[in-house]
Specification:
about 260 residues; alpha/beta; Rossmann fold; 5-stranded parallel sheet; 11 helices; about 55% helix; about 10% strand; binds ligand PTJ
């Protein structure tokens, strides 16, 4: 890995890039993952690289759904695995969710490397590896259709961080609640999910863990009320308005960075 000086003004962002690039070198992230990350960076730049209140509202509803679920599952791809391995494991522990590898560019080698990485961070079981991915999501033709009969197939709530398209619709057709984490509020996944967290996975996942540890102590009725009050269309609209307002404000200023 390249050594990034902590004094660099884009230190955090460069560090994430290095994690993704290192993931490619290790055969965990695919080259397409670099493109996905760059697209995310662009949205995050516009959002000011922070978690906005509507995203926090989505995080709360997402965690409440996971805690109330009978079979919650966290679906993991290459990018998510290298960006937040410890938080995947901690969220699974806090909510009782299973962890399942689900890849668009699926190879046996990548499945195993991702499972191995998550185990190094404390995961006791990782589904969706090898013969375990023996079930099929109907009407889905990508490699993402292959799922574990003990995981996504029987899940009632599925968390899909950084997803790429048509699986969310297929999962919803199967009657599942889908939670997406996607910096792009216009993406197919963001639009189709029941709960969309428009935030960077590196900020959203630690916040989800924190929220899970807090909400776990609440009675089920409180969790049900959080979900009933939640409106994903409203939250998506608010996130798009934040993007619009920020662009408007920045366009009026013209220059928003000055040499100190
Ligand atoms: O590991 P695999 O084989 O399953 O492949 C994973 C990728 C990410 C390559 C695959 O799912 C893909 O091609 O995804 P897309 O279509 O590029 O979509 C990724 C979405 O995630 C885009 O809408 C990005 O804006 C968004 N995104 C990228 N990085 C982040 C993000 N959202 C939240 N946090 C990020 N760090």
């Amino acid at each position: 890995m390249v050594k990034i000086p902590p004094s660099h003004p884009r230190y955090e962002s460069l560090l994430l890039r290095e994690k993704i690039v290192d993931g490619v070198r290790k055969g965990i992230v695919v080259l397409e993952g670099l493109i996905a990350h760059g697209r995310g960076e662009c949205f995050d730049y516009i959002l000011g690289e922070k978690t906005w209140p509507p995203a926090m509202e989505a995080i709360r509803a997402a965690v409440a759904s996971m805690l109330l679920a009978k079979h919650p599952v966290i679906s993991v791809n290459g990018n998510t695995a290298v960006l937040v391995p410890e938080h995947i494991v901690r969220l699974a522990e806090a909510t009782g969710a299973k962890i399942e590898v689900n890849l668009f560019y699926r190879t046996r080698e990548r499945e195993e490397k991702i499972a191995q990485l998550l185990k190094e961070y404390g995961a006791k079981e990782v589904l969706g590896v090898g013969d375990d991915a023996s079930a099929t999501i109907p009407e889905l033709h990508s490699e993402r259709r292959r799922v574990s009969p003990r995981g996504i197939l029987v899940a009632d709530v599925v968390l899909v961080p950084l997803e790429d398209g048509d699986r969310t619709e297929a999962l919803r057709r199967m009657g599942k609640t889908v939670i997406a984490i996607d910096l792009n509020p216009f993406s197919r996944t963001a639009q189709m999910a029941n709960i969309t967290i428009v935030d960077n996975v590196v900020r959203a996942m630690p916040l989800m863990v924190k929220e899970a540890l807090k909400l776990k102590k609440e009675p089920p009725q409180v969790l049900r009320e959080i979900i009933e009050r939640y409106d994903n269309r409203k939250v998506l609209g608010e996130m798009i308005k934040i993007i619009m307002d920020r662009l408007k404000e920045l366009s009026q200023k013209g220059v928003f960075l000055e040499i100190k």
